[in-house]
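Record pair follows.
FIRST:
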Amino acid sequence: MNAQLPPASFKPARLKPDRLKPWQALALIASLSLIWGYNWVMMKTAVTYSPPFAFAAIRFLGGAIVLMLTFKLMGRSLHFRALLPRWRVVVLIGALQTALCFGLVTWALSTGTAGRSAVLNYTMPLWVLVFSVLLLKERVPGAQWWAAGLALIGIVLISVDGGKSGSLPAVMLALGAGLTWGLGVVVTKRATRDGAMDNLALTAWQMLAGAIMLCIVALLVPEAPINWTPAFITALLYNIGPATPLAYVIWFTLLNRLDAGLASLGILLTPLLGLLLSTLQLGERPGLVEGVGMGLILVAIAGLGWVSSRQARERSQANRLS
């Protein structure tokens, strides 16, 4: 797991691309947020006609293949030989960030609401904070702990409301998805300390590994057959198309040509849009307690993102001065 990547297997570093113009950055962030935010409506629609694991398996198998083809058409290497010595890490990340995260959240969507699932899934920054302290021994600013405490209060409120309404299992599944996603992020951070990995290639291969795991689960777990309605096919194509290759191309473009803090706006806005769009299209109406809990979590996510972006800017300035 800790084997170093062969340096010669990677292409020489390219010159940093020009920064995006403000209107370009705004357009890309808005597009990414809308694509991923609306996908919560699409996923909820899909599990209305399909069992959760079958949908997740088809979605990510198709998405991984289309993503790889997209990267090849863009002239990007998938670095198969470079990542092969670290296949255990790639499989572990795929298990956490694709198989477990999206297996759990798709299961949650099959019995719970899209908006709540989106908000709880995006508690990921909270779990990244916790696991970074426990596993990486990182020190974090006090402001992040305050934000984490706010998120915890929100989680408790949603859980209490879920216990009263009978939706606690769906709450726990969506929360578990955010936890495994956060753990996957920390595992990735740890892996990059042991040797650089190309982010695009890692994303494609871990997604394929996770998709294979989901296919195995879908075959082993007894589920009802898929009802191939036009609505399901549309939702599936949306997931295999815009929500995967297009969204990831936009995401990596933002990361490469924009400050990390600004790029992360696409992540921060997604659960909010998921909540709003599911309310508008699906008619979901959270109760008072659940709504307050969701609001606290969204504020906490924004706070964690703001502190992280400030730290990234300070590190960038320090590197330029050194």
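SECOND:
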Amino acid sequence: MKWGAAVNLKKLIGLLEKSPIEIRYHIPEGCDPEKIELESLVCDSRKAGPGIIFAATKGEHHDAHDFIPSAVAAGSPAILCEREVESEAPRIITPDVRSAMGCVCALLHGEPAKKMTMIALTGTNGKTTSAFMTQAILQRAGIKCGLIGTVLYDDGAKTEEAEHTTPEGADLQNLLARMVENGCKACVMETSSHSLVQGRVSGIAYDRAGFTNLTPEHLDFHKTMENYFLAKKRLFDGCMRNNWQASVNIDDQYGRRLRGELGKRAITYSMIDEGADFFASIANITLEGLDIEIKLPGSAKKQQIKLPVLGAYNVSNALQALSLAWSIGISAQSALEALQNMPQVPGRLERYKIDGSGSCVIDFAHSPDGLEKVLSALRPICAKRLCVVFGAGGDRDRSKRPVMGEIASRLADYVVITSDNPRSEEPASITAEIERGVREHDTPFAVRVDRREAIYYGLDMIEDGDMLVIAGRGPETQQILKDGPIPLVDKEIMEDWCALRGKKVL
């Protein structure tokens, strides 16, 4: 690790005593805190070692206090915990480790977030695409920018598959420290409602924030839409700094509410209200992308660009990225050029033409709103049949399953119901709940519980002019089953099918 000079335990305790975190500590007799050098913090005992504090978090299924002995045996010289435990290592005790460990880890790394322009994106849908767009704009403008989101983490030197939309506080700070070490001057990150409620972003303050929209999702956790909105609003109420601004989608009812509460700090964007600071309309749609016209602040002339993505909602995502970049001083010309030349976002309306077999689109849509938007976006450019393969996640909100089934059968010409990530549930019980919604219409459908079989079935069905949507998992590389995860990538399944059938991806 090269994250700067190590901090000794005595200095760390002194910094924590000046912070808002409530702590007490226990130093074993004969232990000199000035001689205990600390470099980082982890909440996974398997990553514990010399110089690394072990944070004992409590989750739904495990209490990491049980792993303190193994962390100490691995060499961890200090423990962050919520209660007194028997251990030879010094303990820093705080009421809520999960929310405190981000601040502790930030102090160990010299508060890396203070060394970058921090941009947070929140909302139900669109965060990932907007994050990729924002990063592309900043990079083209010469600002090296890290990225943290649902698909991947980019620390400025390498990328890795994401485990969570927003990592745990310790992992997040370690990632930010790597970004600073690798020369990043900015970081754009998706900030989930879970992370805001659980305190994962403690120790970070943001310069800019974006709000995409709010639709029913995660209600198994938040219970009501009002709670969900208030969770998102924590970002704007308590996580911003300096002369901050927020880019807000006023086409969304919750966005309009947020704009009213933020006042002059809100930069607005819209595809409906031409009075917004940033406004865009679609002139033409093809399989290659969207021809759009954009109105910028202070300019009467509209800018025309070709956006190489599908879906009208991605115009909103582009407006958010554009407005955020504009707010930190990036020229409109540079930003628009970046948008026109951006690569496909993994698993977000990722489109492929298959020789002699129509088109295939892979998308992460796993909620009713997401699925409806994807199918509605593709319908106008689908020459013949629009087919969809999808499922629903296990151990998650069950009420959305028949709703998604109804949406699929209403908007598609053929539906293939399959597994998503069933987790501890029986896949057949999940598909049965989806099927109830599908049967609300007369659309033909099939059930293929095995996801590979379902995708092969859908691809065998399509012909020139048809389009197959593979929805729900996007770029995920593992399918989570009752017995644990197995390797499974929707794009690779499509490529395997092409190889077996002698087809080429164009």
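COMMENT: Residues 313-327 form the longest helix (15 residues).
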